[in-house]
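@channel sequence for tomorrow's demo:
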Amino acid sequence: MASILEQYLYKSQSRDMKTFKKIKSIFITLIIMVNFSNCASTQKLEKSLPLTIGEVYYQDWVAGIQGGGSGYNIFIPVLDNPKSITLDSVYFKGKQAKLELNDNAVFIGRFKTTLNEKQDIIMSNEPFAEYGNKVPKLPQKTPFDLKDDACVISYKQGNILKYYKILNVLKKEPKIYPSAKPQ
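C-alpha cells (generated this afternoon):
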C-alpha cells in the first residue's frame, strides 16, 4: 500500500515538474518575443517630405528678469503644403516638443531650459522642512540619436505617423528680453 502511494506521489511530482517546465519555457519565449518586437518598433525615417519647407533655424531666448526662464525655439517655415499636412512634434537636442502653427505658416517648437529658472529649494537638517521641494525632472530619452544641427519632425499622413530628418538647422542670434516694457 505504501509503495503504491509512493509511486502515485512520484508520478504526481513528475507531472508537476513537467508542467512547470512548460510554463517556464512559454514565459521565456514570451519575453524574447516582446524584446524583439520592441526592436521592430523603432521609428523609420522618410526619405522625402510631402510639403516644402524653408530654412529651419533655432533661437535661444532668456527672460529679462531673474527667474523668468530661458530656452530655445525651433522654427520650421512651410512654403508649400499641397496635401494640408500638419506637423506634430519635433525632436531636437535630445528633447521633444509639440509643434504650434503661427499665423505666418511657421511651425514653432518651444523648449525650456533651467538656466534662468527661479528655484525655491529649502535646505535643512530637518527632513520635514524639505517636504515642499520639487522633485527634479529626469531628461527623457528620445528615440533618435541626432547631432546638434539636426532635428526630426513627426507628421501625420492619413492616420499614419511618419518621421523626417532635417539637417543643417541654423542657429540665429539669441533673443534677450528686456527686464521691463519700454516706455
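heads up for whoever presents: The beta strands are 45-46, 52-53, 57-62, 68-80, 86-92, 95-101, 106-117, 151-157, 160-166, 170-176.
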